TrEMBL record:
Residue intervals of the FtsK domain: 393-598
Keywords, ordered alphabetically: ATP-binding, Nucleotide-binding
Official protein name in the record: FtsK domain-containing protein
Binding residue positions for ATP: G411, P412, S413, G414, S415, G416, K417, T418
InterPro entries referenced in this protein's UniProt entry, alphabetically: FtsK/SpoIIIE/SftA, FtsK_dom, P-loop_NTPase
Keyword ATP-binding recorded: yes
UniProt keyword Lyase present: no
Signal peptide: none
Segments forming a coiled coil: none
PROSITE patterns: FTSK (PS50901)
């Protein structure tokens, strides 16, 4: 953890040295004085006798012999003074030590078990005792021996190394079990988790604690899989560092004190070795874990695990089953170890703690448990943080920010991926207001997963945070591309603002520009692999945009959530790992593959309604298993949505809903409602596949080539385009200023055309369904320069009219077809525009004749292959495979390349041809 971790370790060492110093002052005061006196007495001849025999064991004859020495009075006087001072210090010493331990080890940390064993602790886990009793020590006193408590620091303060002696396994278990019961009984249920690993035993590790194994308080590990425990601990350290210490704190203890909450439980990892040196790789992993563990609230108790740790470690070395030496009291004092707590009482106490923990967890958790007590109180300036599930009652959070900017979610059909997305979206929306969070939601699979977040016929509410909702877009890859283009534009806008304010990230931008609107953006793309399904321009452009957004979006608060059933088949990313490398937050549903790291198989064994949450790019040590509550069934998410809607709907617009399964309705389109009479009328042909709810239109000014061709034999779509073009134009002409001339030789389409004529007339316009198209074409062509009003020719099935147009009446120099060519070439400059439907490209070419493609400035292709359209697209290669309900649109005056549009739905009452 760098310099901050070093500072934290130094503070821990300093605190422990201060405790040791207090103990040393008491234990060493008299010893120091005595050593000084003995140094002076070394000059005297009696020193050897005094040291060997000692004052307390002297006989009367020896006293008589010493008393005759010339220096006896001086010696006895000095030694008596030293001895008096020695015992005077010891009179206060043990009392001072008892006070020291009582102050640093309150309650179960030092009191006899009878005072607390069997009771459930109440410490919430924000602070922890500094010392924990393991036994006592006795020193000789003037009148009676003096005894004081011996305690060791744990949890935030220090690790503990225990070295056994032969035949002392039971004593070691007693020490460990006593310490664990003291710790578990001090804190409220859930505040401590114990991890047990024993290289030599499969199931008999501290059996008295087994009642806890059905809760989150106790976890056992396979004796041959030490790496599983070390990976899990390393994951906790990294996660806490990433999610908490980036706020400026150097330890979990500081985070608890600053927030006043227990953001993480204490963890005690007990490792039983066999005295043999660990494998080099395991030893290195253990050393790395131990170095960062204390700052992350993780304490190691190592039994017969020979290793050198570069961090604070206290030690207990057993002489036998009852005695040991401790690094806290030095090698000169023998520690009398506390006897093991009675087995039956420990089992019952562990059972009570387990029952209390289960009762506190309240059984299965619900979606409502994910929600905060107050809505919209969090700030997204630095990151987004929200619980998405629970691990045995404790919330499991997802953190989206600079450290984990993008999310990759994987899970096969039926694994609960949609339910997880609802849990994530609901938890985020409940914590952050729409000013703090903007959601763009896209579902490529055939379904309506997100449709309920937009207003509908049965429910008028919507999710205020949602700006865009796209459903049923599995065939509209262009819509996904449009979303990526929008995000890229927003990224450029934010980058420009950051540059203007001389900052580099969103949090600093919001600080420097408090009046700006800079919410964090989360774009969720479900089944995103469909976006890259083809080998075409959409895939190439989408790949480039996605890589750029993934790489640079983190600093500007733009985050991607990419979900898929299987990411293995995305050819677009073979050899291009940029996107996946940026998705450091990986979420694997049960049976998901290739989402986590290659060797991480945690999702394979995950139970239903669970997810593996991993903030470390899928590496195993970052795994967190979470039970995801039901968030997607009826009336579960809706309750939250209604609360948010009632709170924010007046201040935020409804989201843009794009539903690929439904054709847009012209009358409901804002662009149609806004049409007014103008000199440059615009024919609306369909809906653009774009983030904005935009109509695709063609301006028809008095300029060459402003004619429109509808190409293909798809009758329903062709009738729709012709209909919407005519009705939109009708709104832009003053009554009496235009004549609509309609021709339809296709018998099946005549009813639809006739009804359009009636609608145009109802709008006050002159509309004529002609029977003799050649005659009418000739008449208009011959009088182009003297027309009194504009003309719009709506020609249905022009290819079917060609035989009649080709025929020449007696005395005519030009046929109707010749005059139609004149109208196509010269008509637009005189206010005569042709909107024609040709059912094949060949027939259109026949109509236009040699070098006539320029006369069709705009076209909408239906069931026509892309390679046939190149002559009408400035010779460029056109990638287009026909699909129902879609058209390819190109306007040579505005388009660099053709775009896909959705024809409008024809009004009810009109018959399909």
């Amino acid at each position: 953890m760098g310099s901050k971790a070093s500072e934290q370790r130094n503070r821990v060492v300093t605190a422990l040295e201060r405790v040791r110093h207090q103990i040393g002052l008491v234990l060493g005061a008299a010893a120091g004085a005595r050593q000084s006196a003995e140094a002076e007495l070394a000059k005297l001849e009696l020193e050897q006798h005094i040291v060997r025999v000692g004052m307390n064991n002297s006989t009367s004859d020896q006293y008589a012999e010493w008393s005759r020495h010339p220096a006896a009075n001086e010696v006895f006087g000095l030694l008596g003074s030293v001895r008096g001072q020695f015992y005077a210090d010891w009179e206060a010493g043990p009392n001072a030590l008892r006070e020291l331990v009582a102050h640093n080890a309150p309650g179960p940390a030092s009191q006899p078990p009878g005072n607390w064993l069997g009771r459930v602790g109440g410490n919430p886990g924000i602070t922890a005792p500094g010392l924990w009793r393991v036994g006592s020590a006795t020193v000789s006193g003037k009148d009676v021996p003096r005894t004081f408590d011996v305690a060791v620091p744990l949890l935030d303060e220090s690790h503990l190394s225990i070295t056994s002696a032969p035949k002392t396994r039971a004593a070691v278990d007693g020490i460990v079990q006593n310490l664990l019961m003291r710790i578990l009984s001090t804190f409220e249920p859930g505040a401590v988790r114990v991890h047990l690993w024993d290289v030599g035993q499969l199931t008999a590790i501290l059996p008295d604690l087994y009642p806890l194994s059905r809760t989150s308080a106790l976890t056992l590990y396979d004796p041959g899989r030490l790496e599983d425990l070390l990976d899990e601990l390393a994951g906790h350290i990294r996660r806490i560092h990433a999610t908490g210490m980036q706020a400026g704190h150097t330890s979990l203890r500081e985070i608890r004190r600053a927030s006043g909450q227990r953001v993480e439980p204490f963890r005690v990892a007990v490792l039983y070795g066999n005295g043999e040196t660990l494998e080099p790789e395991r030893a290195r992993e253990l050393k790395r874990v131990a170095t960062g563990a204390l700052a992350a609230g993780i304490c190691l108790i190592l039994i017969d695990v020979p290793t050198m740790l570069s961090t604070s470690v206290e030690s207990l070395s057993l002489y036998d089953e009852r005695h040991a030496k401790s690094s806290m009291t030095g090698p000169d004092l023998v520690v009398d170890l506390d006897p093991p707590m009675p087995s039956g009482q420990v089992i019952r106490a562990a059972g009570r703690i387990a029952e209390a923990l289960i009762a506190k967890q309240g059984g299965p958790r619900a979606f409502a448990d994910l929600l905060p007590t107050e809505l919209g109180k969090e700030s997204s300036a630095r990151e987004l943080r929200a619980p998405v599930g629970f691990f045995e009652g404790e919330p499991v959070e997802v953190v989206i920010g600079d450290a984990s900017p993008h999310v990759l979610i994987g899970g096969p059909s039926g694994s609960g991926k949609t339910n997880f997305l609802y849990s994530l979206l609901g938890s985020l929306a409940a914590r952050y207001s729409p000013d703090e969070l903007a959601l763009y939601l896209l579902d490529f699979k055939e379904g309506v997963s997100f449709a309920g977040l937009a207003p509908g016929r049965r429910d008028a509410s919507w999710l205020p945070h949602a700006k865009l909702i796209g459903v049923n877009v599995n065939t509209d890859r262009e819509f996904g591309l449009a979303l990526l283009r929008f995000l890229a534009d927003e990224l450029r806008r934010r980058s420009a603002a950051a540059k203007l304010h001389e900052v580099t990230n969103l949090s600093d931008l919001r600080e420097q520009d408090p009046g700006g609107h800079w919410p964090r953006i989360v774009a969720v793309i479900d089944e995103f692999q469909y976006l890259f399904a083809g080998r075409d321009g959409v895939t190439a452009t989408a790949t480039q945009l996605l890589e750029d957004i993934a790489r640079r979006g983190r600093s500007q608060g733009i985050h991607l959530v990419l979900a898929s059933q299987d990411v293995a088949g995305i050819e677009a990313f073979w050899g291009k790992p940029a996107v996946f490398e940026q998705c450091t937050l990986r979420i694997a549903m049960p049976k998901a593959r290739r989402v986590l790291a290659e060797t991480n198989n945690a999702a394979v064994s995950a139970p239903k309604w669970h997810a593996v949450i991993n903030h470390d790019s899928g590496v195993a040590h970052g795994n967190q298993l979470a039970h995801v509550p039901d968030a997607s069934t009826k009336d579960v998410f809706n309750k939250l949505q209604h609360r948010l809607w009632e709170r924010y709907s007046e201040s935020f617009k409804r989201p843009r809903l794009f539903d690929g399964a439904h054709s847009p309705v012209l009358e409901q389109f804002p662009a149609f409602a806004d049409l007014k009479p103008t000199d440059r009328p615009r024919a609306l042909l369909g809906q653009s596949i774009d983030v904005d709810e935009a109509a695709c239109g063609v301006e028809l000014p008095k300029a060459p080539g402003r004619n429109v061709a509808v190409l293909g034999a798809a009758t329903a779509e062709a009738l729709s385009i012709m209909d919407s073009a005519a009705r939109s134009l009708a709104r832009q002409y003053h009554c009496g200023s235009v004549e609509f001339v309609l021709s339809c030789p296709i018998e099946a389409s005549v009813p639809a055309v006739a009804e359009l004529v009636e609608r145009l007339r109802a709008d006050g316009h002159e509309a004529t369904l002609v029977d003799d198209l050649p005659a009418r074409v000739i008449d208009i062509a011959e009088n182009l320069s003297s027309l009194d009003k504009a003309r719009v020719l709506l020609l249905y099935g022009v290819d079917a009219s060609i035989p009649a147009l080709e025929a020449k009446a007696p005395g005519q120099l030009k046929s109707g077809l010749d005059q139609l060519r004149v109208l196509l070439k010269q008509g637009p400059t005189h206010g005569v525009h042709t909107i024609g439907w040709w059912r094949s490209i060949a027939r259109l070419k026949d109509t236009l004749g040699f070098a006539g493609t320029d006369d069709i400035g705009t076209w909408a292709a239906l069931d026509v292959q892309g390679n046939e359209l190149s002559p009408f697209a400035a010779g460029q290669v056109v990638h287009w495979s026909p699909r129902p309900g879609r058209a390819l649109f190109f306007d040579r005056t505005t388009h660099g390349a053709p775009e896909v549009i959705i024809p409008f739905q024809r009004p009810e009452g009109l018959l399909d041809g």
